[in-house]
Amino acid sequence: MEHFDVVVVGAGISGIGAGYFLQRDCPTKTYVILEGRDTIGGTWDLFRYPGVRSDSDMHTLGYSFKPWTAEKAIADGPSILQYLNETADEFGIRSKMRFGHMVTSAQWSSQESQWTVQAQVKGVTMTYTCSYLFMCSGYYNYAEGYTPSIPGMDSFAGQVVHPQKWPENFNYTDKRVVVIGSGATAMTLVPAMADQADHVVMLQRSPTYVVARPDVDKVAGLLRKVLPEKVAYALTRWKNTTMQQFVYKRSRTEPEKIKKLLLKGVQDALGENYDVATHFTPSYNPWDQRLCLVPNGDLFTAIKNGRASVVTDRIDHIDARGIALESGERIDTDIIVTATGLNLVTLGQVAFTVDGTPVDFSTTWTYKGIAYSGVPNLASSFGYINASWTLRADLTCEYVCRLLNHMDATGTTQCTPRLRPEDEGMAEKSWIDNFSAGYMERVMDQFPKQGDHEPWINPQNYKRDKKLFRESPIDDGAMQFSGVLERL
Q1: I need a surface site. Which of 89, 146, 162, 444 has the fewest CB within 10 A?
Q2: How many CB atoms are closer than 10 A to CB 63?
């Protein structure tokens, strides 16, 4: 049984970042990264469907400490995976990783001030202990994507594929394809498959807001020509985060103005005769759900040249030949792609106990969106739903290192978020508030609660988080420290 100061779970974007910050800010700490899969990359290694790419620019999805230098700011999956591999090797993080370690349980002992972490490795249980546990395992089920129950699916004579389990060398040349869904995955798949397929239909129950942007950031390119690489990257990152937050805030305060701008952009791209009202006008306000990015307007190009089309309707049933719609229309097809979303999970589906009592995270309060009331020496990394994931992952790692260094400086071994007297009776909010996306709403009852004041909040606001993580005192009365470190 090996002991580490910190066990990090997950070797994707968050886990690699955790390794970097632990090495930089806590150089005396020992750590290991346990990864359930056989390689690094998480999302960017798992998803292999055509066209897989970021829906955030890489100057903000990239790490603060490693500039993104490729020309394309909206990058494809293989390029992002290469960047993650480069990061792991450049900073010596790969040597800290142990692959094929699927963490299944974690038990906290207050008496020993440590976690006991169990992982399955080819059917064998491996056990580790650590003083601090940092969950960087993402937020969705890697084993299965979400597929709603659709009557008659089993009777379909063609092929049914979920993007999360895309077959290797899958041939769809000259095939009729229906992609069920209207989110980022669907809008990536449709133009990517349209080049080879006979025709691709995006079948959606309801529309999503879409915005077209170039995949190359010309300002970033100009800055790289005249400034040192790190300076140019920092300025581009500042520019893009500022713009992201500005647009999001304006969407909240003046939704009708943003709505008109978005719809005008689609109408201009598809022409005045296209039915934007039916196919690209949602019933909700912008950023009530995530905005979909269309790099270089590729979806609009596929629609205009007749290689793709959008149908907005509900499925009545599926039969051997295709899909019958509630309107009475039908779509005959050879392939159905169920781009119907993800199954979210809480902290990697790990079974947690604290002093023998199982932890039900739905009964806890979130502490700054990274820790949980009553659960000691634990943090989890969860990015933004309205900006790039890595912006928040970086801040989370910085905070965890501040916390560990504070414990060293004060000689304490335990840090536990606990409600103070002034926190009792807080107004209760969902962990992700004012966000109506189905993949979130399906599981919000499994996540911790959010309060109405700091630090019991998860604001999804980069500017506010920077103050919350970097400037707020570590010893704020809510994060309570105990245990005395035995000094030799």
Answers
A1: 89
A2: 22
Which H helix or E strand runs over 417?
A: strand 412-417
Amino acid at 58: M
Same domain as 315, residue 191: yes
Alpha carbon 277 to its chain centroid, in Å, reads: 30
Domain at 265, CATH number: 3.50.50.60
- What is the C-alpha to C-alpha distance for residues 30 and 22, in angstroms, rounded to an integer? 9
Is the whole-model pTM more than 0.85? yes
Cα 4 → chain centroid: 27
Q: Are residues 185 and 303 in the same domain?
A: yes
The residue behind tokens 């390794």 is: 19
Contacts of 211 (CB under 8 A, 6+ apart): 262, 265, 291, 292, 293, 294
Provide the residue range defining the domain that includes 292: 153-228+260-338
Q: Which of 338, 371, 392 is the last residue of a domain?
A: 338
Count of CB atoms within 10 A of residue 83's CB?
23
Helix ranges, 147-284 (H): 184-194, 218-226, 229-253, 255-270, 276-279
Q: Are residues 168 and 105 in the same domain?
A: no
Total structural domains within the chain: 2
Residue 487 — very low, low, confident or very high, per pLDDT cuts 50/70/90? very low
Amino acid at 18: A
Q: Choose one of 338, 361, 388: the last residue of a domain.
A: 338
Residue-wise pLDDT for 447-465, tens only, equals: 899 999 999 999 888 999 9
Residue 178 near residue 333 (C-beta atoms within 8 A): yes
Q: Are 265 and 212 in contact (CB under 8 A)?
A: yes
Within 99-197, residue ranges assigned H as helices are 184-194
Distance, in Å, from the CA atom of 58 to the CA atom of 467, rounded to the nearest integer, reads 23
Answer yes or no: is pLDDT of 486 > 60. no
Q: Are residues 312 and 379 in the same domain?
A: no
Same domain, 20 and 102: yes
Return the amino acid letter for 145.
G
- Same domain for 59 and 184, yes or no, is no
Q: Among candidates 433, 68, 453, which has minimal Cα distance to 223?
A: 68
334 and 347 share one domain: no
Closest-CA residue to 282 (of 308, 303, 251): 251
pLDDT digits (tens, 9 = 90+) for 419-438: 999 999 999 998 887 776 77
